What does this fold into?
Amino acid sequence: MEELVDLIATDASASDVSNKIKDALMAKAATRIDTLRPNVASSVFDAETPEEEEVSDEQPTEQESE
It folds into this structure.
């Protein structure tokens, strides 16, 4: 960040200042992505699948009332 202030203070070209800002933003975004990646990966790929109930072809029988 100090380098950015130095570029502005020394009247560096606008493209140099812009590139430095972009580099700082990309580095910050990459850090956040690296931090969040394990949580997202575990929520997407490690999700437990519920066990399916066994399907029966038999019709339920009614009990006769007496």
Summary: The chain has two helices and no strands. The two ends are 88 Å apart (CA to CA). The longest helix spans residues 14-45. The chain has a mean pLDDT of 82.
